[in-house]
Amino acid sequence: MPDLVTTFAALGDPTRFAIVERLMTDGAQSAGDLQDVSDISAPAISRHLKVLREAGLITQTVDKQRRIYAVAPDQMRTIGDWMLRHQDFWNASLDRLAAALQED
User: Fold this and answer.
1) In the chain, which stretches have pLDDT less than 50?
2) What is the phi-psi region of residue 28: left when phi exceeds 0, alpha when psi lies from -120 to 50, beta otherwise?
3) How far apart are CA 7 and CA 4, in angstroms?
4) Which of 51, 69, 75, 86 could form a disulfide linkage to 56, CB 3.0–4.6 angstroms apart?
5) Are 87 and 79 spatial neighbours (Cβ–Cβ below 8 Å)?
6) 49, 69 Cβ separation under 8 angstroms
7) How many CA atoms, within 13 angstroms, populate the side-chain half-sphere of residue 47?
8) How many C-beta neighbours within 10 Å does residue 58 have?
9) CA separation for the pair 8, 27 (Å, rounded)
10) CA-atom Rg of the chain in angstroms
11) Bridge partners of residue 61, in order along the sequence
12) Which residues pair with 70 in a beta bridge?
């Protein structure tokens, strides 16, 4: 399983983030179906898909001549688990911010 630094680096690109969002919302799709997530060429989409696969965020299956991409649930769960472990930190930080804003 890829480490979270690689995972978050892959998601840091707007096109890759949009691809993952689309796959989470609409389910598995071919590379051709994902062309409209950004105004870039087919080879560029393929390169983004490769980065996402290598980061463990998506999977690829072959259906005759098409490559079908889907979100990798285990990696999404890993991200969710990481966020939950840090939830107390963020809640406390936001509480301190709210208190500071009320003092003004």
Assistant:
1) 1
2) beta
3) 5
4) 75
5) no
6) yes
7) 7
8) 24
9) 21
10) 17
11) 68
12) 59
Contact predicate 39/46, CB 8 Å: no
Q: What is the pLDDT of residues 47-67, one digit of tens each?
A: 999 999 999 999 999 988 899
H/E segment holding residue 58: strand 58-63
Amino acid (1-letter code) at residue 29: Q
Distance, in Å, from the CA atom of 20 to the CA atom of 26, rounded to the nearest integer, reads: 10
Residue boundaries of the structural domains of the chain: 4-103
Model pLDDT, residue 72: 95
Distance CA 54, CA 69 (A): 13
Residue showing tokens 């630094």: 5
Say how far apart CA 41 and CA 70 lie, in whole Å. 20
With beta carbons less than 8 A apart as the criterion, state whether 36 and 47 touch: no
